[in-house]
Amino acid sequence: MQDIPLHIGIIMDGNGRWATGRGLIRTQGHLEGLKAAKRITKAASDLGVKYLTLYAFSTENWKRTSEEVGFIMSLIKQYLKSEFDFSIRNRIRVRFTGDMEGLPADIQEEILDTMRQTSGFDGMQVVLAINYGGRDEIVRAFKKLAANHSPETPLTDLTEKDFSAFLDNPDIPDPDLIIRSAGEYRTSNFLLWEGAYSEFYISQKLWPDWEKTDLEEAIENYNKRDRRFGGIVNVA
Ligand code: IPE
Ligand code: IPE
Ligand code: MG
């Protein structure tokens, strides 16, 4: 019996390489990447995952050409619209992490709409990380803390728990497993705080090639890990 991670985060990487490897333009890879995101969302929901965080656009991805950025934004909008029926059928609650204010107004509206309309659903929660950076989330949390801070409680007493209450989704448990496709061994600024004790699984497969079996393999691999959280394994 496999232990299904409560929360899985995915760095969906390799769309560009998938396309250029086939002589196609990079945007074609993003289109296929979107299809993979839908497949894996369905697979995770079927497997009983409770939280799935999808890294769709980082705070650094604005460095790309305006054509590519514009295409990704339009895909995100399309995803939110087209996935709505799927969310209803599977009672999926859509949530958000990232700097919402830095996104185009129409995308903000679409995200807020989807979040509102799915807020009562009790199935898997899909957290879309868009214009997301781990460092940015920490800085935004610090700003929220500073704005809400009462002079009676000295900051020198601040605990990790106090601080994490100002992160984007403090009610969501830390990811148990972080998957990265396309073979890079780095976080690229994903869930820096929350991922402190996440298990990492790097797959060589490019994101558009991901199927349910790849997710199952990642979970199988996760089941072989000893999660020590800095302690020692219990040898009863
Ligand atoms: C991931 O694929 C999608 C985003 C970062 C938006 P890439 O576009 O980074 O694909 P590669 O890494 O260039 O292959
Ligand atoms: C990370 O991939 C961001 C997303 C998958 C959204 P990148 O392709 O942007 O990361 P780097 O540039 O290879 O570190
Ligand atoms: Mg990449």
Radius of gyration: 18 Å
Tell me the strand order in the biggest sheet.
3-4-2-1-5-6
**CATH overall fold name:** Undecaprenyl pyrophosphate synthetase
Task: Say which CATH homologous superfamily is assigned.
Answer: Decaprenyl diphosphate synthase-like
- Please give the alpha-carbon distance between the first and last residues: 22 Å
Tell me the total number of β-strands.
Answer: 6
| Form type | globular
Order of helices and strands: EHHEHHEHEHHEEH
Textual characterization of the structure:
This protein has helices spanning 15-20, 26-47, 66-82, 84-89, 105-118, 134-148, 160-164, 212-222; strands at residues 7-11, 51-58, 93-97, 125-132, 177-180, 199-202. The protein has 236 residues and is of the alpha/beta class. It has one domain: Undecaprenyl pyrophosphate synthetase (3-Layer(aba) Sandwich). The chain has a six-stranded parallel beta sheet, sandwiched between helices. β3, α5 (105-118) and β4 (125-132) form a beta-alpha-beta unit. The radius of gyration is 18 Å and the shape is globular. The two termini are 22 Å apart. The relative contact order is 0.19. It binds 3-methylbut-3-enyl trihydrogen diphosphate (2 copies) and magnesium ion.
